[in-house]
Amino acid sequence: MYERASRTVEALNAPKTFIRGQALLRTRKVTLLAGAIYLAASVLGIATAGTASAAAKPAGNTGNGTISAPTVGQRVKTGAYTARLTSANTFEVIDPEGVVIEAAAATGAAYAGPVGFTITPGANAFVAGDAFIITVAAGTSKAMLATAAATDGSQSPSLVLAYDADATAGDVEAIAYESGDFVKEQLIFGAGLTADSTREQLRRLNITMG
User: Residue 7: helix, strand or coil by DSSP?
Assistant: First the structure.
């Protein structure tokens, strides 16, 4: 725990007071992604998911169709997704926890979910049981300004930066609050996020604002 004297933060530009109330302040060390100057009171997210790759199931498929290079979307989980053919032209999608998240997607059309891809039939038709495995790697676990359009997990705000940090030349370690009560007008949100849009999500993490 870092002393509450951090209530007033000496910024790179001007001091900023953004802590309010008597809520418990809990801190953690984070690694800030290189390439930016981060200001105190920035609302951060963590990159929990990395890139995705796809391949036919280990035993191979009867059909010789292909799957496009996959992309990751909102709410993606790390681990292996399965796109399993239920007929020559339809498939289901199963997430890394074994939950069917799409029961009847069509081949030849883009599927857009936590992972995105297109399965294209080949000369030899698919049969039920053919499958492709889409593997989402773990992310870097680095912190960055949370933005709504991110797909690596950092779109989910979870921390408030305690002090300014200059990461223009490389990753840097910093201290962030993982709980506390903050002045909403002083918090810095990334593109597409606001105090109102993140209030409930942050409240569940014991980060409140007023």
Answer: helix
Total residue count of the chain as it appears in this document: 210
User: In the chain, what's the furthest Cα-to-Cα distance?
Assistant: 69
pTM for this entry: 0.78
**Rounded Cα distance, 158 and 143, in Å:** 10
Residue 195 CA, chain-centre distance (Å), reads 19
Q: Looking at residues 24-32, what average pLDDT do you find?
A: 94
pLDDT tens-digit readout, 97-142: 999 999 999 999 999 999 999 999 999 999 999 999 999 999 999 9
How many Cα atoms sit within 13 Å of 92 on the Cβ side? 10
Are the C-beta atoms of residues 137 and 51 closer than 8 Å to each other?
Answer: yes
Residues 91, 54 contacting (CB under 8 angstroms): no
